[in-house]
Structure formats: C-alpha cells, structure tokens
Amino acid sequence: MPLRLARTNHDAIVKPAAPLHPIARLPEEWRDALAQRGERAFAAKQIFNWIHRHGVVDPAAMTNVSARLRAALAEEGLGSIAEIVHVHRSADGTRKLVVRLKDGATIETVLLPAVSGPGARPEPEIDADAAAAYDDEDEEDDPTTEEAFRGKTRVTQCISTQVGCAMGCVFCASGVAGWKRHLGPEEIVAQILLGRALLDEGEALRNVVFMGMGEPLHNYDGTARALRLLTHPDGIALSTRRVTVSTSGLVPEIARLGRDFNGQIALAISLHAADDESRSALMPINKKYPLAELLAALKAYPMQRRRRITIEYTLVSGKNDDVAEAQKLARLLRGMPVKINLIPMNPIEASTLGPPDMARVFAFQKALVGSGYSCFIRRRRGDDVSAACGQLVLLGAKPKVKAFRNSAS
Ligand code: SAH
Ligand code: SF4
C-alpha cells in the first residue's frame, strides 16, 4: 500500500533533516569538506567537475585525484545512487528512463528531443516541440550559450522530484498513487547525469522541466539545491532561464523561489480551472491556496524582463473544457505576462476522466487566442511508452494507460 497522506496538508509531512549526500555538495562545500580532512582546496573543483561535468560518481575513476582521497571519498559513500533499469524508446524519439534508487524506489525521467529544426512549427496551433513549449520565443538568445546548440537537436528533459505526490490531483497518476517520499537533491540531479549519458549523437540537453512525478515546491529544499547544482557554471551549467519549475500552486514556496533565485527560474503553473469551485474539485491544493492567493503570488513573482509564466491547463472532458471556461480564464489572466499550454488529459487507469474531443480543444484554444493570448495545444509525446504527462507511475505498476486515440492525430 502506498503511504497516503492528507491531500491538502503538505506541511504536516515532516522529514528529518538528512545529511547532505556528497553528490549534492556545491564546490564551496567540497572545499570545506576537504579542508576538514586536511586536503588541498583545488581537489574540490576537480571532484565537482568529475561528478557534474563528466557524470563520474565512482571515486576510483577520478584519475587526477590522489589515491588516498579517492579511498576517503569511497568510504564517505560517494558512488552510484541510481541506475537505469529500463529505457523505453517511443517512435517519436521520446525516451522514458525508469530509474531505480538505492532504497528500491523507482522514478521516471523523460528525454524529449525537439521534433523539428529551431523555431519550426509545422502545425501552427499545435506546439509539437516540447523544447519550444518551455522556451521563451520572445527572448533574444544569448549567443555564447546558443553556440553550443548550433546544428544539434535540442533536448528537453523532464525530471521527478518525489516518489509519488501528496497533492492528489484527480486526473494525475502520481496524485492518485499518493506520496512516498521526497527525492534528495542528489537523486534529482542523478536523473540529469543518467539522461545526459543517454543522449544520441548530435543531441544536446538544453531545457530541464520539473514536470515528472511529484510536486517540486513541496520538496522545496531538494528542488532548490538541485537548481543550484544544475545551473552551476563548473558543472552541468544549464542556463537558469532554460529550467522550468512546474507547480500546482504552493503559494509560500512560489514567493520563496522568487526570492531565492531572483525570479531567474522559469515558472509553470498548473491552473486547470478559472474558478475556485472547479479548481478545488480537480486539485485539492486549491482549498488551501485558492485562486486569488495564487494569482497574487504570480503577480508578485520577480519576473525577468520579457519573460512569461507558463499556464498549464489540462483539459478534462465535462470538467473544465467549456468555451465559457476559456472566457473566464481570459478574464482571470488579463494583463498578466503569460502563455497558455493546453494539455488534453492523458487517460489514467485509476479514473474514468478523459480528454475532450479535439473539436472542443480547438474551440477552447480559439477563445483564448481571440482574447489575445499566446496559447498552444501540447501534442501528445511518447504515448506508446507512457511518458506523456501524468502517466509516470510508481514502482511495480505496469503502464496504467488505457488505449486512447487522439481524434486529431
Ligand atoms: N506537480 C507539478 C509538476 C508535475 S505534473 C504540477 O502539478 O505542476 C506536470 C504537469 O502534468 C502538470 O501541469 C499536471 O497538471 C499535468 N498532468 C498531470 N496528470 C495529467 C494527465 N493525466 N493528463 C494531462 N496532464 C496531466
Ligand atoms: Fe502532484 Fe502535479 Fe500530479 Fe497534482 S498534477 S498530483 S501536483 S504531480
């Protein structure tokens, strides 16, 4: 039985402070740790580099580190903490990695290569390119960072932050399964190290989205440290604006993220409804942080110039898919710097809820575009490997996806 917790009471979940795993240390913390052992400081950067730049976590392979220090690091527990147990490759190039952690729990992470050349959109209203969906097209790209991606297929990786999720959203496989535990920052980062090693020739990791299993801001400490590690220039060195944290709307933590990272981290908000009654029916967290509070937190987020918040709206047939809801949403978001991603719900085993037909999806989109919003329909990716949104399931579970045909595809 998965551990079930009060759905809206995420503050009640208390985890004893775990000691920091060596993989989760920042370079300055490596310097301190080494100084305590009487080691020289320069090894700090070498070790951090091995782990985060080269993906090497086994001290025995750190050839420029002294044998004595390698032994001490192994003694301290530096080494592999996660292994890939399956790679499911979808016909559309999406790869779902099933990753087993040390305690036997499994999580999933997904590699989503861009389906077309930079900027290309074969179907104007369907945003088929997951990478583009979380890029801000309005922004001028930094030429130095962009150079690294010239001629490469840009890959977006979707990562998990918890085993299960406590938020209990009714349309989500992770929510229905319940919360088991937070991931440590080293486990969040390990997904990227493993994913990067699996990239095909000619692919480059460009975007990371915190949209896998779990609510990233419920695991604030793990998420925040993972963000520091992923964006550190001596390591994986992701550009902060290419990292998107998706949240169901934990208001105090949205403010905290804004403060701690000065608004540099891109935000995606799972809104899914334009009034409290329908939102609470889909997402119990809305009872704790209703729409007015959530919107106030978004307005207060220290947004970087020319950037926008992504509003995610999963369309659930008969629940939130009426054109009248789209008009309500347009009024609710008036004046805010947002772009809207519509996601026709991916069916899950545990629920009879499902997506509307595509005619309704297009009508919903048309109403928002007509009101002046930039609004895309997220194409279903990786359906055949259960890698689409909300289909990331827990250990031992078979892919819990009913046969479903998208009427537009
Ligand atoms: N917990 C975070 C991030 C993970 S969920 C959040 O809720 O934002 C990532 C996105 O997938 C969210 O927008 C979520 O609402 C959506 N999602 C979950 N289950 C889904 C499903 N069955 N079909 C379509 N989208 C789903
Ligand atoms: Fe958790 Fe996000 Fe799923 Fe809601 S949609 S249950 S917050 S993972």
CATH superfamily of the largest domain: Aldolase class I
The N- and C-terminal alpha carbons lie at a distance of: 37 Å
Order of helices and strands: HHHEEEEHHEEHEHEHEHEHHHEHEHE
How many H/I helices? 14
Quaternary: single chain
Question: Any ligands, ions or cofactors bound here, and which?
Answer: S-adenosyl-L-homocysteine, iron/sulfur cluster
Spatial arrangement of strands, main beta sheet: 1-2-3-5-8-9-10-11-12-13-4
Largest sheet: 11 strands, mixed
Shape: elongated
CATH architecture descriptor of the largest domain: Alpha-Beta Barrel
Query: How much strand content do the residues show?
Result: 15-25%
CATH topology of the largest domain: TIM Barrel
CATH top level assignment of the largest domain: Alpha Beta
Helical residue percent band:
25-40%
Give structural notes.
- The chain is an alpha/beta fold and 409 residues long.
- It has 2 domains: 22-76, DNA polymerase, domain 1 (Orthogonal Bundle); 82-385, Alpha-Beta Barrel (TIM Barrel), CATH 3.20.20.70.
- It contains 14 helices and 13 strands.
- It has helices at 27-36, 42-53, 67-76, 130-133, 143-147, 173-177, 185-197, 220-231, 251-260, 276-282, 285-288, 291-300, 323-332, 358-370; strands at 82-89, 95-101, 106-113, 126-127, 153-158, 162-164, 179-182, 203-210, 243-247, 266-270, 309-315, 338-344, 374-378.
- The chain has an 11-stranded mixed beta sheet. A two-stranded antiparallel sheet has the order 6-7.
- α1 crosses α2 and α7 (185-197) crosses α8 (220-231).
- Residues 1-14, 117-140 and 393-409 have low confidence and may be disordered.
- The chain binds S-adenosyl-L-homocysteine (SAH) and iron/sulfur cluster.
